[in-house]
Write a structure and sequence with these properties.
Order of helices and strands: HHHHHHHHHH
Shape: globular
Number of strands: 0
């Protein structure tokens, strides 16, 4: 790989980490950047998973340090997400994904319009309006369903988690982002182990890209915590736009 191609990749991985730490969806930017270098698709997937895992871990640390995570439902949510991801991967082998693509083309604009119209969306943490059991069950169910989507199709998983945590469970956007990051990290680690075992990580590319991803996640997560919904909401809508574009043109 030429130096220019590596620098371009590093830039896009940095940008993906920055956006992902705020509103999810970084893979919509990073993975195409890896593929554009011309490396085999499985190596692109493995190398991207390597760099994104380290960036996500850093982002989780920032959210935890600033106490912007609702910890009580985390363990069951992570377990449900892992089970859902395994189920989704199995379904992907048995089912045509065209129906899901069509549903997403309808659903994504609706979500984006809702977030744009509802100006107070995610401004305040209103979890006190719900019982602890409701939050536990709701978080577990959301993680199971979206984890299944992640295993089946994948793009925008973090963004969908943020939306459900905010809309249904009444998290503020910052806390929703923190919880989504932890669930994503667990899923990333599970996938990364498999890619490493099968030799699909190109470390000469993935390691410098990981540093860029970590830096992007550091800047983005701190910005999300400092500014809150004012930065998360527009980035969230941007990610939905990128997701819709990628689905339509895939």
């Amino acid at each position: 790989m030429e130096n220019f191609e590596l620098l371009r990749l590093i830039f896009f991985v940095f940008l993906a980490g920055f956006i992902d730490s705020i509103a999810g969806g970084g893979g919509l930017i990073a993975l195409p950047a890896y593929i554009a270098t011309g490396i085999p698709i499985h190596s692109a997937l493995g190398s991207n998973k390597f760099s994104s895992t380290f960036g996500t871990a850093l982002s989780v640390g920032v959210f935890l340090k600033n106490k912007k995570v609702y910890l009580r439902p985390i363990v069951p949510s992570v377990v449900c997400a892992l089970l859902g991801s395994a189920l989704g991967a199995r379904l992907a082998l048995l089912t045509n994904d065209d129906v899901l693509r069509q549903l997403l083309i309808i659903a994504v604009p609706i979500v984006a319009i809702f977030v744009l119209i509802k100006k107070d969306f995610g401004e305040h943490n209103r979890t006190s309006e719900l019982s602890g059991r409701t939050i536990m069950l709701g978080s577990g169910l959301a993680s199971l369903l979206i984890g299944t989507y992640d295993g089946f199709f994948g793009p925008g998983t973090g963004s969908f988690l943020i939306f459900v945590f905010t809309f249904a469970l009444k998290f503020d956007l910052v806390t929703a982002s923190g919880n989504a990051k932890i669930i994503n990290l667990a899923s990333n680690i599970g996938s990364l182990v498999m890619f490493i075992i099968t030799g699909q990580v190109l470390y000469a590319i993935a390691i410098p890209a990981a540093f860029a991803g970590v830096f992007g996640n550091f800047l983005g997560s701190n910005l999300a915590i400092k500014i809150g919904p004012k930065i998360i909401r527009p980035v969230f809508v941007l990610v939905l736009g990128i997701l819709l574009f990628s689905i339509i043109n895939n």
